[in-house]
């Protein structure tokens, strides 16, 4: 659930860039039209910290597919990469601001691959233990 919410927050951030092109994710990547974005959750892991705290380093991939007939509409690979670096470095989610790290990109075949990682911090509450109501104590001497 955490990953889906984080991915949705990143989708909202991507939509706010103002491009009028479709954004797909792993659930609807069939019939991909160009130009478009494809956003995928690439990897994540759970890192246990102290006192019920957990950290989830999460890597997202945002792929940009330009119009094959005209690569400059809406913009080219490097201009899009610069825009993604500027706009996606910080993201709001559940009232908190997250900073992306390890931002990098590469151009493969006919697409721009942009990668960004976020650390999601979660604190899990321990279940409350049953306590004794009262204890009767007896004393005996030998």
Question: How does this model look, in words?
Answer:
- This protein has helices spanning 2-15, 77-88, and strands at 23-25, 36-44, 47-48, 53-65, 90-93, 96-99, 101-108, 111-123.
- It is α+β, with helices and mostly antiparallel strands.
- Strands 1, 2, 3, 4, 7 and 8 form a 6-stranded mixed β-sheet that branches. Strands 5-6 form a two-stranded antiparallel ribbon.
- The longest helix is centred in the N-terminal third of the chain and has 14 residues, at 2-15.
- It is elongated, with a radius of gyration of 23 Å.
- The termini are far apart.
- The model has no long low-confidence stretch (mean pLDDT 83).
In summary, what is this structure?
This protein is α+β, with helices and mostly antiparallel strands and 142 residues long. The chain is 18% helix and 39% strand.
The helix/strand order is HEEEEHEEEE
How many β-strands, per DSSP? 8
> Helicity, in percent?
10-25%
> Total helix count?
2
List keywords for this structure.
142 residues; 6-stranded mixed sheet; 2 helices
Detail the topology: elements first, then pairings:
Elements: H1 2-15, E1 23-25, E2 36-44, E3 47-48, E4 53-65, H2 77-88, E5 90-93, E6 96-99, E7 101-108, E8 111-123
Parallel strand pairs: 1-2
Antiparallel strand pairs: 2-4, 3-4, 4-8, 5-6, 7-8
């Amino acid at each position: 659930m955490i990953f889906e919410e984080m991915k949705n927050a990143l989708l909202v951030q991507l939509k706010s860039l103002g491009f009028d092109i479709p954004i797909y994710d792993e659930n609807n990547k069939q019939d991909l039209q160009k130009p478009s974005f494809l956003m995928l959750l690439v990897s994540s892991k759970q890192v246990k910290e102290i006192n019920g705290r957990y950290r989830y380093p999460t890597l997202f991939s945002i792929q940009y597919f330009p119009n094959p007939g005209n690569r400059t509409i809406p913009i080219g690979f490097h201009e899009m990469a610069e825009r993604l670096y500027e706009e996606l470095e910080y993201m709001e989610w559940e009232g908190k601001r997250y900073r992306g790290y390890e931002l990098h990109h590469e151009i493969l075949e006919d697409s721009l691959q942009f990668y960004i990682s976020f650390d999601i911090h979660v604190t899990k509450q321990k279940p409350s233990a049953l306590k004794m109501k009262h204890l009767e104590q007896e004393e005996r001497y030998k």
